[in-house]
């Protein structure tokens, strides 16, 4: 399809957003509201539980929107758009088997164990089930992974500020960090959650117009598909084509078994069920019913996010694919480039605000979970136990500062990645995949021991790391970096299961009396804890919400098989 002369000129420029005064006013108003929410939330923070878990008082619709918004950070917006440009509609796998089924599993199966045990974090559940050694390793690993991921969101935010103002990357990163630090330090998790709910709608307001205008400029869906067929090939518009075992030709570079097991099972369930950055939102819910419904409510909008993230990536592949090929742009630049090309003053301000909102939501989620785990699971448990509650509240605020400062450093690591989603999935294969294997085996098998969990978990981190290093040394080991993350996750999971079972068989398990509510079938979990009358309404049934989400998964796959 032929582009008009103006569009062609814009497509060949570097990324530089030309904002008008109206756009800057919108952005300033947004940041003003963010800080105001921080000050408002501060008045509700009286204890460490208020700061770290919002006093367990949030309704399900708030925590549900915060749950999905916390995931709408750099990896979702820039990363999934990058994947849309690079691998096309195969990116749907990250949603339809790589997210929603695991979110349903979390709500229906995992949350009763988490919320019923009254733990304050996912690592604390590890402590209750397996003891101190696995708990400490898990807490440290989570802290490290979270500051690495926070750096990804900071880097993405800096990309937009750099494009808007022409600031050097280092200055943009520091200014971005300052705003997130301000409202998290002030109001803790409540501030993060209230901002995440607002940010959810701001993100939609920014990306929906971009998608609509972008589709219009390339001739609608038919024009886009025709352009993609000519520039990328028809496989860019399919999900499962070219995934046969022994006949892998899809852009991901993995067969269907690796996609289903590596992404759909290990990486997906590892992230959505054990990553405290997400699960923390459900922990803040006011009762068991609200906690279970949190990920199920989030699953519904999650299903439709691809239409405002992946589709723009496809549009970018169609109109500036040559710049991705010659290195002028990285795939991470897909969304900012389209914003520059298509959006006029006024709408431009909304889109930029939406992007900034998404990155702040992602980083705030990382920082708020980091400070909780460090304060409760490391500081209180092993360094300064039995201190007054105000000590942990103060510690949490200082740890927030430390987390953001370290995140600034890791932002420069993220800047070295051509596709930040692949970088993120690599981190998940290191940290989330082995943790999920430990958790699922520990929940289902009462014979699993502390030593089995510890050595299984440690070696489960080591083996995907070795796999990744081997791929860096010899890129021919896997077809793509994305495929490496899936195979690395499978290797990690299998390692944990083999090592944990072998070690557990020769070591002493906990007494069954210590496992009530921590292992499936042992003890009874109160599923109606804290229930209110409206929780019994048919439309609030967790089983119904989960079923609807899974049916929609299948329906949304069908047009792209």
The largest β sheet comes out as: 2 strands, antiparallel
Class from helix and strand fractions: mainly alpha
Low-confidence stretches: 1-9
Please give the order of strands in the largest beta sheet: 1-2
- Computed over alpha carbons, the radius of gyration is 23 Å
Give the overall average pLDDT.
Answer: 85
| Inertia-based shape | globular
- How would you spell out the order of helices and strands? HHHHHHHHHHHEEHHHHHHHHHHH
Q: Count of helices? A: 22
Helix fraction? over 70%
Strand content: under 5%
Distance between the first and last residues' Cα:
25 Å
Number of DSSP E strands: 2
Write a structural description.
The structure is a single chain. The two termini are 25 Å apart. Strands 1-2 form a two-stranded antiparallel ribbon. The chain contains 22 helices and two strands. With 561 residues, the chain is mainly alpha-helical. Helix 9 (132-165) packs parallel to helix 20 (450-473). The longest helix has 49 residues, at 169-217. Mean pLDDT is 85; it is low at 1-9.
